[in-house]
Design brief:
globular, binds N-acetyl-L-norvaline, 11 strands, binds phosphoric acid mono(formamide)ester, 11 helices, Rossmann fold, five-stranded parallel β-sheet, alpha/beta
Length: about 325
């Protein structure tokens, strides 16, 4: 694998999941693979899990790790070609990325959408330019539209816990007070559409995701209908894709309750974290046997390690 920016970069998804599970059982087996290799992790937004799990994954593979909070410690980057840079941006991405590519063998980048201009965000201009100018393999640590490291960890968690060959998986929208990216939801959807699951999406009117990520999913606007016989419920807020970046509702009846799990197949409840308790998900679920969130977060490490290992094997 050269870059890891979406499920399309993965040649064989189940092999990658198996590789992660092998690493989970034997974390240091490949500790010489990354010897004398450096990974740079560049954050334009906050992070807890992604930062620490990717760092730890690289250390387990013997790599040297450099982390930079670009938004706070770096120069403001310009992305527009031919820009006359007499305003707030200090350095062009073509210069900055090319410099970082000389210091690193692999670079991980987190860059959220601005949620103002849909076309701009969905063009993934920042990521594409970063990849073009840095000249080394790039791992998405969440881009404007996707979060593949999270989705791989989610698929690992489902693979480890599923009780039926083809579980029913429901991605449900949840309320939130801030407009959030669609990235986690888009990404989970595109991975689930390629996995052996019966995949449903439940969201209020006006919150349909971009159809390109939900090809064979059943999309409904009634959460209770979707939850019947569900084995997994993935809870996530996203702002509207249709009325781009807007919050159309914060209807608390979309927050999952234990009562609503009664029609499910003792469903496991998933969330990528960070979660706003009692807004997106209730304490009673997060602190119950239904919650899979800590296992997901734990699996971020093995997901990242499988991805880095796969890239190291090609460079
Ligand atoms: C981010 C999001 O929804 O994309 C990151 C999740 C991993 N969440 C927040 O900003 C709260
Ligand atoms: N789930 C996730 O990506 O968490 P962080 O934003 O803390 O990295």
């Amino acid at each position: 694998m050269r870059n890891f920016t979406s499920v399309s970069d993965v040649e064989n998804i189940s092999k990658l999941v198996q590789s992660a599970l092998e690493l989970k059982a034997n974390p240091y087996k490949y500790k010489h693979l990354g010897e004398n290799k450096t990974i740079g992790l560049i954050f334009l937004n906050p992070s807890l899990r992604t930062r620490l799990s990717t760092q730890k994954a690289a250390l387990n593979l013997g790599m040297t790790v450099m982390v930079m909070n670009m938004d706070k410690e770096g120069w403001a980057l310009e992305t527009q070609d031919g820009a006359i840079m007499n305003h707030t941006t200090v350095e062009h991405i073509k210069d900055a990325a090319a410099v970082m590519g000389q210091y690193c063998d692999i670079i991980g980048v987190r860059s959220f959408p601005k949620l103002v201009d849909r076309e701009e965000d969905y063009s993934e201009d920042f990521f594409n330019k970063f990849i073009k100018y840095c000249g080394v393999p790039v791992i998405s640590l969440e881009s404007a539209t996707l979060h593949p490291c999270q989705s791989l960890a989610d698929l690992i968690s489902i693979t480890e816990t599923k009780k039926t060959a083809k579980p029913k998986v429901v991605l449900t929208w949840a309320p939130h007070i801030k407009p959030l990216p669609q990235a986690v939801a888009n990404s989970f959807a595109e991975w689930m559409c390629k996995a052996d699951v019966d995949f449903w999406v439940a969201n209020p009117e006006g919150y349909n995701l971009d159809t390109k990520y939900i090809s064979n999913a059943k999309v409904v606007h009634n959460q209770e209908d979707a939850l019947k016989n569900a084995d997994y419920i993935y809870v996530k807020n996203w702002s509207s894709y249709e009325q781009y970046g807007k919050i159309l509702t914060t209807d608390p009846s979309w927050m999952l309750t234990l009562e609503r799990l009664k029609t499910t197949n003792q469903a496991k409840v998933m969330h990528c974290l960070p979660v706003r308790r009692n807004v997106e998900l209730s304490d009673e679920i997060l602190d119950s046997e239904h919650a899979l969130v800590q296992q997901q977060a734990g699996n971020r490490l093995w997901a990242a390690q499988a991805v880095i290992k796969s890239i190291l094997e090609t460079i």
